[in-house]
UniProtKB/TrEMBL annotation:
It comes from Streptomyces candidus. GO terms for molecular function: O-methyltransferase activity. The keyword Transferase applies. Residues 11-98 form the O-methyltransferase C-terminal domain. This is O-methyltransferase C-terminal domain-containing protein.
């Protein structure tokens, strides 16, 4: 059977994935919570597996709650960082930054969802 042309998310959801999430806040919250949980182990290990200290600033593209970048900044006090994600994706990031005491070292930047 031939595969349909185009993006699978548009075929399944009738729109791109992030637009679908924006239309379904409960699913969006679940998706972003799952992404945060999935990255929690990496947030503990990655900061020591790579020499982030040689940089002045690190940007986590699609960083959601900021969990991964918080781990990196905790391990490298000389760094600053930016979490870049959609507005919905960043919903929990201020709490993460507060919990880690990173408000002065980490900024948040939102971008429209990809189309």
């Amino acid at each position: 059977m031939p595969r349909p042309a185009g993006r699978l998310d548009a075929t399944v959801f009738g729109t791109d994935f992030f637009s679908y999430l924006a239309q379904h806040p409960e699913l969006s919250a679940d998706f972003h919570a799952a992404m945060s949980q999935a990255v929690s182990g990496a947030a503990t290990a990655l900061p020591y597996a790579f020499d982030f200290g040689r940089f002045g600033t690190v940007t986590d593209v699609g960083g959601g709650s900021g969990t991964l970048l918080a781990g990196v900044l905790d391990a490298h006090p000389g760094l600053t960082g930016t979490v870049l994600d959609t507005t919905e994706g960043l919903a929990e990031a201020p709490k993460t930054l507060e919990r880690h005491g990173l408000h002065g070292r980490c900024s948040l930047s939102s971008t429209p969802a990809p189309r």
